[in-house]
Amino acid sequence: MREMNIFLAILVYLVMAVILVAGVVLAVKGTFWLLILAALGFVLGVTKISILRQ
Hints:
Number of domains: 1
Oligomer: single chain
Helix content: over 70%
Structural class: mainly alpha
Low-confidence stretches: none
Shape: elongated
Largest sheet: none
Number of helices: 2
Radius of gyration: 13 Å
Distance between the termini: 12 Å
Strand content: under 5%
Number of strands: 0
């Protein structure tokens, strides 16, 4: 079970990193909606996997 949590955490970090980079690129162009949603999703995803599973 622990291996699956580690795999899910790595997967969340990679997916959210891609979305955050896309959000930063859009923020440079003047639109911040993807960056805000990605930051919230990152916090919720990491919290769900790492903190609430303990």
